[in-house]
Amino acid sequence: MFRSIHIGIDRYAATGIQWLSGAVRDAAALHALFADTFGADPALLTDEAATATTIRTALTALASEAGDDDMVVITYAGHGSEDHQLIPYDGDIHRITDTCTSLDELADRLSAIPGATLFCALDCCFSGGLGARVFSTGLRPRVASPGSRIDVLDRVTGNGRVVLTAAAEDQPAMESVRHGHGLLTFRLIEALQGVPEVRQGNQVNLYTAIEYITRHVEADAAQMGHQQTPTLRGRLDGAPLWPVLVPGTLYAKRFPERIRQPATADLASLNAFGIPPAVLDAWAGSIAALNDLQLAAINDYGVVVTAPTSSGKTMIGELAALQKAPTRQRAVFLLPMRALVNDKYDQFTHLYGPAGIRTIRATGEHSDQVPELLRGQFDIALLTYEKFAALVLGNPHLLSLASTVVVDEAQMMTDRSRGSNL
Length: 422
Description:
The protein is of the alpha/beta class. It folds into two domains: 2-250, Rossmann fold; 262-414, 3-Layer(aba) Sandwich (Rossmann fold), CATH 3.40.50. It has helices spanning 23-38, 52-65, 96-99, 103-111, 183-192, 206-223, 249-254, 277-284, 292-300, 313-324, 338-352, 370-374, 385-394, and strands spanning 2-8, 43-46, 71-77, 80-81, 85-86, 101-102, 117-123, 134-135, 161-165, 175-176, 181-182, 199-200, 203-205, 231-235, 241-243, 330-335, 359-362, 380-384, 402-407. β12 (199-200) and β13 (203-205) form a beta hairpin. It starts with a strand and ends in a 15-residue tail after the last strand. 41% of the residues are buried.
């Protein structure tokens, strides 16, 4: 019997912890694949449901329910800390060691869970660095030698138990705005669905899958200008074969963009593209139907839109941003004037705030929300060209936070005084 727990945390209770964008999607995708394939109801803990208490309770329950012949999977996507803690939703940044889960505790809890095979994937890191899945405490553990503290996972007892970490001790674990997942989890999802390199009939060779994941994560990270090498701890007997995971109803519901029909003039057709119902209701009062320009941009993936005034260009930019917002992928709007930023801020806050979409702004004025921008605590950010250029020079990780960039009045690139900034 398969049993699993999937944990993903994007947004933490503490305001000082940087938001992530793909951790909840990581957990939701793996949960859906296991639920669709085995017809069970695996545990799914995301954001406010993933507190220190609920995580420990779920692991304790798993230890009491699992049998010696079961196959057990535990996945965690979220922040790690530099002093080797997994940070739950309610982790206190001033009391990390008291409110989080250490790798020592995790090793003990994994050792207590029965099962023929136990596989644990940790898509976080312990190295530091903005844009990575780590929270920097500003502290360093007082140890006698600089040896790897991740080595504590080697003491998970029993054969058939492995822990796959997203990166080595001194490396970041990155997210991909392109895929909307952590690099490790994206390749894990691919492997478990039976890519040719790991497939044996209708089964997946777990060892071959881990090798596939490692190779591709290294290549993905290199394309982003980083080094990230997943590490394997523990040991397996033989070469375990798992059934190929098959996406079904739950997976299609959570990720309709991977299984969907083209949009039509009817606004309701945008529901399959991830546009929240509350946003569709807000639009319904002023937009009767989508026009041909908007449909072409949605269905044919328009990158540059050139059209007359009042033809619906602005809504195309909003569609691009709002389609990503429910999946925690951020958007940045670059506008030519402060007045436009402030006007759009009021409009977006009024229209999209009730749908839980957070809009922030930065123009160089006293009301700027730069700290929230740097921590990724937004769904939509509105900035002038110059403000964004200045911030990116000192904080290059901002470029990796946004999955969608909307440039208003792109013809400004030809302006002699401002074009270089844009």
